[in-house]
Amino acid sequence: MDAQWDDLRIFLAVARAESLSGAGRVLRIDPATVGRRIARLETDLGAPLFAKSPTGYALSDAGQRLMGHAVRVEQAIEGVAEEMAGSAGGMTGQIRIGAPDGAANFVLPQVCARIGEANPDLEVQIVALPRVFNLTRREADMVVAVSPPTAGRLSVQRITDYRLHLAASRRYLRDHAPITSLDDLKGHRMVGYIQDMIFDKELDYMREAALERVSLASNSVSVQVNWVRQGGGIGVLHDFSLPFVRGVVKLLPEAFSLTRSFYLVRHADDRRLERLNRFAAALADGVRSEVARLEALT
Known about the structure:
Layout: H1 5-17, H2 20-27, H3 31-45, E1 50-53, E2 56-59, H4 61-85, E3 93-99, H5 101-106, H6 108-118, E4 122-128, E5 142-145, E6 154-169, H7 170-175, E7 190-192, H8 205-208, E8 216-217, H9 221-229, E9 234-238, E10 248-251, E11 258-267, H10 274-296
Parallel strand pairs: 3-4, 3-5, 7-8, 7-9
Antiparallel strand pairs: 1-2, 5-11, 6-9, 6-10, 6-11
Helix pairs in contact: 1-2, 1-3, 1-4, 2-3, 6-10
């Protein structure tokens, strides 16, 4: 194989963005140039690397095989850069974190802001998506997840537990029938997830409350929190979100309480990169402390 690192860099960008235009934005080069470079690489290797369609670029079998090699080259180059820069100073470069939007909205901003203050040359990106991230394609450098993955070459660290309770606004409670037991919930509007968009069984809170009908549904935790805050209904909310929403209180905490966990997930090969190791340690410590601080306020 005669491909240079610049060819592999462009290949990785297309594989991760699944389009020439997306790769061009990341690389800051014209999409037509990206396309020519991919075509040249495919000619050099004698195999198509992508299956092209109107919906985007998907890796072919040959592309899947090249992906692993290209990622290892990328990691080796990053490792050399780290070693040359030394690890005694502050962290630098860009780190992208994938997270469910509950963590992304209510926990990670404070944590990452503090890490950024201590490392002014570090660029942190938080990608909040209600789905599972693909670390193999490097959609993120690391992921905060609500359940540990069971497949792939991944490193998994349990960060901390967090709690959820039924909650409603004081205005809603004032204007509707009293709630003294879980049975009373059946006469109230419930706020929760869109059932067929729940991407992890750990998020199926309503099933545990034996409630099947959700009147106001969204795949976004932030939308659910705002519905509850505005008096739209009763939801199952993270305790760590409650300090951000005035006028919202827990309901029946003795009768209904859920405990879940956050996990930090990384690609196994990334543990050789000291910069990511340092950031992962700071992130885990920060999330653990911030969840404890916010829950103590409720």
